[in-house]
Every structure is written in C-alpha cells, then in structure tokens.
Design brief:
The complex is a heterodimer. Chain A is of the alpha+beta class. Chain A contains nine helices and six strands. The longest helix of chain A has 29 residues. Chain A is elongated and about 85 Å long. Chain A starts with a helix and ends with a strand. Chain B is mostly helical. Chain B has one domain. In chain B, helix 2 packs antiparallel against helix 3 and helix 3 runs antiparallel to helix 4. The longest helix of chain B is centred in the middle third of the chain and has 25 residues. Classes of the chains: A alpha+beta, B mainly alpha.
C-alpha cells in the first residue's frame, strides 16, 4: 500500500515533465487579485487601529520585477541565485525608501488565503502590521515554476524617504524580510486578476482526491475484514481494526481540510 | 465491538485524544509545512507506540502486531507528508 501511494504520487508529479500534458490534465486556476489583497490587508490593519497603506506604482513595478525574476530564473527564495535581493528591485524602480519589507506567497487559491497565511506567520505578520509602513506594492503573476503552473504573490511594504518613522525602535534602516514565490514565463499581472476557469485540477487537488480514494478503500477493507472475522469467529493474530479505521478517517479528514499555499519564513 | 471498547476504554480515550490533538496541531500550524510534516511524523511514531503498549498490556503482543502498527503508522505519515510537499 505504501508503494502504491508512492507510485501514485510519483505519477502525478511526473506529469510536470510533460508541459502540454500537465496543462491539459492537471490544469491550474487561482483567484487572486491585487484589489482584494489591498482591501484585506487594510482591513486587518484597521482592526488593529493602524493606518491604511496605499499602493505605490513604483513598488508595484518592483514587486512585478521580483516575481518575473523568480519565474525567469526558476527560484523560490528571498535572495535570487545571482544574489539580488528585494531592495535591489525597489531601488531599480527608483523608489527611495527608509525602511522596507517583503512578503512572498505561492500556490494559494484566493486572496483571503494569502492574507490569512501571512497573518498566521510571525515574520510575515510583522510586516503586515508594521505601523510605519505607508506604501505597498503588489504583484500577482501566473507562470510555471519548476514544472508546475502556479501564482506568485509579491508584496512590498515601504516607508518613503521623506516620511517620518513613528516607532521608537526604528532608528536605522532595516532591510526587509523576503518571502518567495516564483514564476516563469507566463503572463504577469500587477493589480489584476488572472484566472483560468477551464482548468480546475491543480496537482494538489488531484493528489488529494487520489489519496482520499486510497484512504477510503483502506477503511472499507478494514471494516469488511472486521465483519468477516466477527461472523466467522476467526481468532485474530493481528491488531484491532477499529484503531486503524479511526486513524485513517482522521487522515481523510485532514486531506479534505488541507489548505495549499506556501509562504517563505 | 461494544464489549471490546468497554474493555479498552482508557486506551481508546488516549487514542482519541491523540487524534484530536493531531488534527488541531496540524491545522493550526498552517501555512508552516515543515511544522506540519514534523507533527505528522510525531503522530505516526506516537500511534505506533500506542499500539505496541496497548497490546503489551493486554498480553496480545506479537511480531505481526508490531509490524501491523508500524505499517499503518508509516502509511498514515506518508500520506500527510506527500500532501504537504
């Protein structure tokens, strides 16, 4: 059974080596857009009594450049393989800042999930609820990263050079934390939604569905085995199926509730 | 089944508490996938130990039982780890 699970997982992942097949079989869909991200971020900040952040066109361009760089160089990290960091993109966009921060996310389905994941991660939350930040840049880019279609979200926060920093402990410029998503060639969209409604079978959903089928087959087999043993009054040499059934039902529950998406600590 | 559960009330109470704790910890640790994998491995090991201890206490421990719990724990852990990759 373990070999079967590994084989199924390998098969699903092997599709990535056949891009045309992956697009047809696995497909891809996300529903993330900049406007919703902006309003969700400001809603969270408002709940905490913080100032609202406004989108900066220059930071949007920097975020876009970062996302495109991750796709073109096929990486998912705060620092590019060539050593380029978040603030390099900000400077290239001619944005002069005192203090900046970066959050990255990938593989999420909705804007709400992205914001919730950032809020649930201490290092990303630090940027999200930083009272000094007044400007934000966002990029939502679809593309192919290491064989899988995905959506990368780059979020940049900054305090413009002219602004006065409120926090007493921020006397010096601090470089941002970077989170990483990646994209490759695909179309990038800053501040725009890009969805593919025809292709809804993401690798995660396919894996989850297949694993659920396997788990339910195991559960049914264990129940059938227990019933046969009881009816024929067999003396069992092995353990009790009841515990195994409880464990596999729990696993099925987790497979259903499992949320995709990654943020980089 | 009813008689069996009554005879092993305490052991199954522990198991259900473990399962509930596992579910809560796993879901709470989102989106930290590394932590989710660690929790899954911890749960797998705990389930194996639970099975061995329960069967040892009821004097029904055999190599078949040990391997059975090892297999179930490994499969459950593997499923969770693979979904988080």
């Amino acid at each position: 059974m373990i070999l079967l699970v590994l084989a199924v997982f390998s098969l699903i992942n092997a599709v990535r080596f056949f891009p045309s097949l992956a697009d047809r079989v696995l497909g891809y869909s996300s529903n993330i857009d900049v406007n919703t991200l902006l309003s969700e971020v400001n809603a969270r900040r408002q709940e905490l009594g913080l100032n609202q952040v406004v989108l900066s066109e220059q930071l949007n361009q920097a975020a876009l450049a970062k996302a495109q760089d991750m796709f073109s160089d096929q990486y998912w990290a705060h620092v590019a393989p060539d050593g380029k960091q978040a603030w390099d993109f900000i400077k290239e966009a001619n944005y002069s800042y005192k203090y900046a921060g970066e959050n990255l996310a990938r593989d999420f389905d909705t804007s709400s999930q992205v914001v919730q994941a950032w809020m649930d991660s201490p290092s990303h939350r630090e940027n999200m609820v930083n009272p000094d930040f007044t400007n934000m840049g966002l990029a939502v880019v679809n593309g192919n990263l290491k064989g899988f279609n995905t959506t990368l979200v780059v979020q940049l926060f900054a305090v413009p050079q002219a602004a006065q920093i409120k926090s007493a402990n921020r006397q010096t410029m601090t470089l941002p934390k970077a989170a990483e998503p990646n994209f490759s060639e695909g179309g990038l969209v800053a501040g725009q939604r890009k969805t593919n409604s025809e292709l809804i079978f993401s690798p995660l959903n396919v894996t989850r569905a297949v694993f659920l089928v396997i788990v339910m087959l195991i559960v049914l087999t264990l129940i059938y085995d227990a019933l046969v043993a009881k009816n024929h009054k067999y003396s069992r040499l092995a353990g009790e199926n009841f515990a195994h059934v409880a464990v596999f039902i729990t696993i099925a529950f987790l497979l259903i509730l499992f949320k995709g998406g990654m943020v980089l600590p | 089944m009813k008689k069996f559960l009554q005879q092993n009330q305490f052991a199954y109470l522990i198991l259900f508490l473990l399962l509930a704790l596992f579910v809560i910890m796993f879901l709470q640790s989102w989106p930290n996938r590394l932590l989710q994998r660690t929790i899954a491995v911890g749960f797998g090991a705990t389930y194996f130990i639970w099975g061995v201890i329960t069967h040892t206490k009821s004097k029904r421990i055999t190599m078949e039982v040990v391997f059975e719990y090892l297999g179930v724990a490994a499969l459950a852990t593997l499923l969770i780890i693979l979904i988080t990759l």
